[in-house]
Specification:
With 110 residues, the chain is mainly alpha-helical. 49% of the residues lie in helices and 9% in strands.
């Protein structure tokens, strides 16, 4: 999956690509860096550089390149999964519930 953006804050395309076990070739922008990790889940190229993009497409167009990233993509999918998200929410809520109350009780609350 090729994402030659000029600017981005995030993209739902990346997790969908990972769901289908496809690596991502994306512009090297802040909104992609957490998910598109070089030679782990895909590759990045300088934004606005069509020559770099063309060269990267040529260099990464084999199935062997895509297959070599399967483990990284699978790990990213686990991190992005709904069960993982739900566990994080429950853990955060449990920690918050057991934390000491930072707001002192007022006379009206007694």
């Amino acid at each position: 999956v090729v994402l030659p953006y000029h600017n981005v804050t995030g993209s739902g395309v990346v997790p969908v690509a990972f769901h289908y076990r496809k690596p991502v070739l994306a512009s090297d922008l802040e909104g992609f860096r957490d998910l598109v990790r070089e030679n782990i889940t895909g590759w990045r190229v300088p934004p606005g550089d069509p020559d770099a993009l063309a060269n990267a497409i040529k260099a990464r167009s084999s199935n062997d390149d895509a297959h070599s990233l399967t483990d990284g993509i699978d790990a990213a999918c686990e991190t992005l999964s709904w069960p993982t998200f739900a566990r994080r929410v429950v853990n955060t809520a449990t920690e918050a519930k057991s934390a000491p109350n930072p707001i002192p009780a007022t006379a009206e609350q007694h």
